[in-house]
Amino acid sequence: MKVAVLIDLDNIKNENSLSRIFVELPNKGELYFKYGFYSNFNDKNIKKILHQYGIVPIMFPSFVDSKSCSDISLTIKAMDLLSNSEVECYAIVSNDSDFISLSSRLKEDNKKTILITDKQTINKEKYNYFDEGIDIYDLLNPNPITDEVLVSNKELSVDIGERNEIITNQTETSEIDSSVTVDNIKYIDFSNESPPIRELLTRIDIAFKNIAIENDYARLSMLVEYLNTLEKKFDPKEYGHTNKRTKDFFEKRLSKYFDIETKNSTTFIKFKAEVKKL
Questions:
Q1: pLDDT, greater one: 235 or 278
Q2: Alpha carbons 253 and 220: distance in angstroms, whole number
Q3: Which are the contacts of 254, defined by CB distance < 8 A and separation ≥ 6?
């Protein structure tokens, strides 16, 4: 199923939310189009978000009401896409209720609709007007009695925001605390490795300076997402591994450099403390 993603960036631009959104949506189908709608041309964070996630910007100047400008622009684009028979699903990312009528119209053409929100106080009854509702706030902030909150709700820049998360089947093995630091970087010595592995480890070392670190750990999925933005898609088989499973590659081929732990089906990775770069 091919999905058109329509993001109201005047309404949702929390980096943690967007990173999780792009974890959830590939489970629904192929992301065929990604459009972001906004009216504030001077918002530098939005420009970084567009670049990071490959979102096509649709800017509309705010003459009276910026909120209405973005909403109308999003609705027009959704109707334009109806002429593309390959698009089967529309994922609307917004906390607004303005898109209920749009969902009804899209469903008249037998299109599936998904509403994605990230507001704590969202009225979930609006999900009833869509084929599916995804509450990113609940996904990012599990029950505090049973799970630790690993992310904040404040808006972060793309440079330090959470990038991604991959669900694994491994059981919980450790506790990761909720503190987040971005500059706690390990230095590694990999001079004896083959050139491709040296290059990869160098890229990973750089990645750790640009993604969120939680108690020295980064989410493996965030790391892979960052690597995917650098020239080409990361593939363990290009480094001599027998399969494309990223976690398996790190555990078997790069275990001398990294500690890997899992919490609530999420894989975390960090450089071993004793590994230094000369």
A1: 235
A2: 15
A3: 197, 201
- Summarised one tens digit per residue, pLDDT across range 136-190 is 988 887 654 433 434 434 443 333 333 333 333 433 433 444 333 334 444 556 6
Which residues, at least 6 apart from 21, have a Cβ–Cβ distance to it below 8 Å?
93, 116, 134, 136
CATH 3.40.50.1010 fits 2-140, yes or no: yes
Residue type, 203: R
Q: How far apart are CA 143 and CA 95, in angstroms?
A: 21
Place of tokens 């790391």: 223
Domain residue spans of the chain? 2-140, 180-271
Query: Out of 3.30.70, 3.40.50, 3.10.450, 3.30.420, which CATH number does the structure's domain 180-271 have?
Result: 3.30.420
pLDDT of 143: 54
Question: Looking up tokens 């999905």, which residue turns up?
Answer: 3
3-state secondary structure of 128: helix
Q: For the chain, where are the E strands, in sequence order?
A: 2-8, 30-38, 56-59, 87-93, 112-117, 132-135, 180-181, 213-214, 218-219, 258-263, 266-271
* Rounded CA separation 261/183 (Å): 20
Choose among 82, 39, 98: nearest CA to 90.
82
Summarize the confidence of residues 183-210 as an average pLDDT: 72
pLDDT class of 266 with cuts at 50, 70, 90: confident
